[in-house]
Structure formats: C-alpha cells, structure tokens
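Lab notebook page, bench 4
Experiment: in silico fold of construct C2
Operator: M.H.
Input chain length: 127 residues
Purpose: comparison with the prior construct
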Amino acid sequence: MTFAKPCVARPGEDRLQGADLIQGSRLAQRVVDRVGEMGKSGIQHGTWAGIHGFKPRADGTLQTPWGEGKWGVIPPGESEGKDRLFVDFFSAKHMVEDKEQAQSGAAGELHLTSTRCNDGEKVTVIL
C-alpha cells in the first residue's frame, strides 16, 4: 500500500533545486541547525525509532545504522502546503514532519515523526 502523493514526492534530480528547497524550509533549517548544535556538544548522532546512529548532513546525504541515504524537502506543491521532509535509506521512502510544533525536547532536542511510505508505520526521530 502506498500512501498519499506527498509521501512519495521528491524534488527533481537538479541538485540546486534540492539545496534551494532545504534552504527555504523552516523544518529543514531546524534539522541542519540541530545537527550543528549536536556536533558542538559532542553528540554525534540522533535516534530513529530509538536506535542511535541517525545523522542527516547539510548537503542532503544521510548516515544511518542501516547504511547511507539521502534526505531533503518534499516540494511545497506536492506536500499539501505543509513543511515536510523526505528521508530515504535502505530502499525505503519516509515522510518526516514535526512531531509537535510546540514540543520542546530536553536540551533543545528536535522531535519528528516519520511515516514509512509503503506501509504507514510511524516512528519517532530525535535529533
């Protein structure tokens, strides 16, 4: 079962478009900022479903315990007007959103919700 179009939408192959989308997304900038903060505080990785080793990089590449991947912004015209990210690794596509706009985690943590596109499984991502 594949979920709504926003879940599987991706920017074109133009790397500049992907970089522009990351720079223009409040959520993507929060991810980039948080990863930078983590590095300064000695925290090297976030968690994906409670498993350590999740690290998005500012260039749109991704390190996970399951291998390398990529992440970026779902084009605004495809995301029902919401600021959503895609995260792809281990042959699986995911759509990522703010868990709660108002939620503030410990030590500035960023809490996100990922929906796996092929089956709708939701997990928490913490950076």
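Observations: The chain has one domain: 5-126. The chain has a mean pLDDT of 87.
Next step: discuss at group meeting.
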